Amino acid sequence: MPHFKLTLSYDGTPYHGWQVQPDLSTVQGCLAHAIAEVTGENVLPQGSGRTDAGVHALGQVASFSLAVRIPVANLHRALNRVLPPSIRVLTTEEVDASFHARHSSRGKIYEYRLFERRRHGGPLLAGRLPERACSPFLAPWVWDCRWPLDLAAMESGATPLIGTQDFSSFAAGDLDKGQRLADDDSDPGESGPNPIKTIHSIALARTEELLTFRIHGSGFLHHMVRNIVGTLVEIGRGALTPERMTGILTARDRSAAGPTAPAKGLFLAEVIYPPHPIFEHMRLDRTSLEASGMESRGMDIVAEHEEVAR
Question: Where are the domains of the chain?
């Protein structure tokens, strides 16, 4: 029985998230329909995570098995012919039957894209920062943010988030309890999803058009990335100080953090599976630190990565 791994890119705007839902258009549902049309088999492809309504993917991963063997190149070509233009299969691989898109994953990288109408520190016009217009060819996939944002303050505010800790303050709040756990990578137990997660890195990058947040973690709670971004924006615009972030974490209370950033700016960028170059880089980083006699919190994160990779 052949087993396949697909890497997908999709525009989440027209979909009610990844997971199949009755009478609603979802990415998983469209993919299952395409597989059935191409192969005649009814299978439900398993995704690496359940992206929420309106959330996009640059590198979502799905896995499934078929009863009949089909050449990889033929399957790849046929799926892209029948899928809607908003969903593309980037790569198709035949893999070992033990591979599972979600359970084999060792982490994910999310990107959040934000357009700054007013650039912090930019030249003044009549004593004010001039307002830029977001291109209509960009607007559907970014947060069109009206505030000027202090990049250094946001980077400082992001620092306490690195490491393994309780991220309850950044999980979906009471208003979301009726919704499915769309972004949650946890296996919920009797008391619900495990709020203990590891954030390995948060990087902010500013270009002429965009401010991009890139967050690499072991897993994410529902709305966790969007709530982190919303809180960092509050810091960037001066509504919160960077020093508040530690208190927000320790509060373990959603009301302590900032608002939820809009779904349309969020992209699942990459799903990490071993072997992956990132694990080798971590071993090299740890060797360098040990050689120099340095001790840091980063070494604990590296060590955890190595343990997970095993």
Answer: 3-95, 107-270, 274-309
Q: Do the domains spanning 3-95 and 107-270 agree at the CATH topology level?
A: yes
> Annotation-wise, does 15 bind a ligand?
no
Which pLDDT tens digit goes with each residue over 9-46?
999 999 999 999 999 999 999 999 999 999 999 999 99
- Per-residue tokens: 172: 């979906």
Written out in words, the top-level CATH class of the domain with range 3-95 is alpha beta
What pLDDT, in 10s, does the model give residues 74-98? 999 999 999 999 999 999 999 999 9
Measure Cα distances from 186 to 202, 225, 231, 243, 301 in Å.
Answer: 20, 14, 22, 29, 19
Instruction: List, by residue number, the catalytic residues.
Output: 52
Are the C-beta atoms of 266 and 143 separated by less than 8 Å?
Answer: no
* Helix residue ranges, H only, 55-210: 72-82, 151-158
CATH numeric code, 107-270: 3.30.70.660
Q: What angle do CA 96, 280, 57 make, to 5 degrees?
A: 60
